[in-house]
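This is your field. Pick holes in the following sequence-structure pair:
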Amino acid sequence: MSDESIRERAGSEASGIAATVVTGTWLVLLLLDFPTGVWLSVMLFGYIVVVPVISMLFDEDEEKDQKEWSQPERQSQPKRESDDETPLERLRRRYAEGELTDEQFERKLERLLETETLEDVEDRERLRETELE
């Protein structure tokens, strides 16, 4: 596994990593019999400050991406070339138009391929081509 892929994975899982570190820290303090005020302060500060800050820094694009996939296009946006675009075609077009960065495109493509196979996409495109003929 390359350093870049480890760095990307750590960035995408930053909130979970921060929560695990906070939990581990206060549990160690609790089990080592530190005073209640010490481990409780670590726990509260970690969950109220550290985890949300990490989430804001690293997970912002992830939440935005999820909203884009789950919400229908707004009426105020101009209609694109075709309303019957497949998700893969839409993703390719948005990438080509510069709406998505390389990382966003790859992340969305992975998510799309997790839910449907390449064969499903090809079958749908073949069906569409036959309908157009």
